[in-house]
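Handout for the seminar on molecular recognition.
Each group receives one record of this type.
Step one: identify the two inputs.
Step two: read the structure output and locate the region that could contact FE2/S2 (inorganic) cluster.
Step three: write two sentences on what you found, then compare them with the reference statements printed after the record.
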Amino acid sequence: MTMTDTDATTTIEDLTDWYDAGPADEIDVDAAVVLPLRPPVAVYHLDDGFYASDDTCTHSEYSLGEGWIEDGTVECELHAAKFDIRTGEALTLPATDAVVTYPVAVVDGNVYVDLRGRTGCIVDQLRG
Ligand code: FES
């Protein structure tokens, strides 16, 4: 599930354990930022909201956040596989496996990503 907006009752306290991805207005529409995690996470800004997924292409390790974003898809720069940003689904070869997506919330102009279910993610060490 990817949540691109929160209702009016969502507060910052509701997102205590979510990863702070920074100000929403610093990510242009049809652009992405790559969060400095291990493994990295890409946060995308589409015309209907924000989405997040693993940044590493499932075909062979390459950054999807560095790829070409258009019509809700991202095209890997290395071998041109396309993924649906909203669902993570691999749309074209050579990738066949989806990328894992994560819930996203925007509260008070800031983007938060729910990585609590992610296994093997090194977050706390990088956040200090
Ligand atoms: S590494 Fe992404 S398509 Fe090959």
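Reference statements: The longest strand covers residues 41-46. The two ends are 28 Å apart (CA to CA).
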